[in-house]
Amino acid sequence: MSEMDNVVLGITGGIAAYKSADLVSRLVKRNINVDVIMTESATKFISPLTFESLSHNKVIVDMFESPKYWEIEHIALAEKAKVFAIVPATANIIGKIANGIADDMLTTTVMATNSKVIIAPAMNTNMYNNKITQENIKKLKSYGYIFVEPCEGRLACGTYGKGKLADIGIIESEILKYLNIYNKNDYYGKKVLITAGPTIEPIDPVRYITNHSSGKMGFEIAKAVKERGGEALLISGPTNLEDPPGIETVHVNTAYEMYESVMKRISNVDIVIGAAAVADYRPEKFEKNKIKKGDDDLIIKLTRNPDIIYEIGKNKGNRILVGFAAETENLVEHAKEKIKKKNLDLIVANDVTIEGAGFLGDTNIIKIIDKNYNIKEYPIMSKAKVAHLILDEIINLL
């Protein structure tokens, strides 16, 4: 991890404080160091232990607590931060910062930092719309503070209106943008189609054939494209994942539905990344009624599904075409065969039998092989980081 990949996260006393745990988890999975500062009020909503467990760092609350190391803690954190985020930010904390009040660890550290400060407000609608709050926000914006606007929704107080904390994915993207870790903007003007997740092939109204793909890899690639200035189009089979904020996401079930959806949208696409685990076969016949258990073995005849990446490869034109190979044996050999057969520019290969490289986890262990069969091997890392490595290799081809 680079010494510069540091975020200081301030958490204030609002009901949305619990959502910051998800933010810390996401950033840590990207190998970003997170130091958390909580106000005393924030600890009434969620325990500091939660953030210590997620960040693996000591959470700072009391300004006058004896420091663990010989350093002035708020100055050390202020200088350490490349990005300083306050999530959620109450009207109180916004007012303090806007008026130069530094009376606790959080406001003191903000006052001492030269890093970019991102503020994500969350509060009652009337408090947010109050003229004083809006003047404070306007003042801070004029000083270069970045605000992630709250959204409309039902609030904890029971009212409906603007003041709900922005989606954590949007806040995460804003932090990554100012970290400049992946914000190369090198995908600006590029449209990338990504397939993700499994497909399901129905046998009867209650049964189907599928696989273990979680969709996480494809979703991370789509988010990485957006972070780097590109336009991502995500076509996904059934998953338990939320749609990535700001990314057009098309939901399908079967391999044939995915095939039709891809072919319908491919004409204006510059890059295709086939991260989906598409079923190779489907039942030849769909039974309209549930198949009843009998005394004999059941035989289901399967027929081939269309090979989406193969079909694109036949007429890919100037597009970059990237495939995936999830194998249990002879990984490199099978991957090389797919490069030739499907006219791929790159293939991302992983042995799913290796711990840390499977479908369901948040990490992967990959080899990237180009059409000349040059191989780059990588150690275990988060799928978010793998996504950017793949994009790095693609941009080299462009």
Task: Describe this structure as you would to a colleague.
The structure is a single chain. This protein is 32% helix and 24% strand. With 398 residues, the chain is an alpha/beta fold. It has two domains: 6-179, Flavin prenyltransferase-like (Rossmann fold), CATH 3.40.50; 191-287 and 298-397, CoaB-like (Rossmann fold). The strands form six sheets. An eight-stranded mixed β-sheet has the order 12-11-8-13-16-17-19-20, sandwiched between helices. It has a five-stranded parallel β-sheet with strand order 2-1-3-4-5, with helices on both faces. Strand 6 (151-154) and strand 7 form a beta hairpin. Helix 1 (20-29) packs parallel to helix 2, helix 3 crosses helix 5 (105-112) and helix 4 (91-98) packs across helix 7 (131-142). The longest helix is centred in the C-terminal third of the chain and has 15 residues, at 383-397. The radius of gyration is 24 Å and the shape is elongated. Residues 67-72 have low confidence and may be disordered.
Identify the notable features of this structure and list them briefly.
Rossmann fold; 32% helix; alpha/beta; 2 domains; elongated; 5-stranded parallel β-sheet; single chain; 8-stranded mixed β-sheet; 398 residues
> Which regions are unreliable across 5 or more consecutive residues at pLDDT < 50?
67-72
Shape: elongated
The helicity comes to 25-40%
Report strand %.
Answer: 15-25%
Which CATH architecture of the largest domain? 3-Layer(aba) Sandwich
Rounded mean pLDDT score: 90
The structural domain count equals 2
CATH evolutionary superfamily of the largest domain = CoaB-like
Q: The CATH topology of the largest domain is what? A: Rossmann fold
Q: Numbering strands along the chain, what is their spatial order in the largest sheet?
A: 12-11-8-13-16-17-19-20
Biggest β-sheet description:
8 strands, mixed
Strand segment tally: 21
Tally of contiguous helical segments: 13
SSE class: alpha/beta
Rg over alpha carbons: 24 Å
Q: Regarding CATH, which class of the largest domain? A: Alpha Beta
Distance between the termini: 28 Å
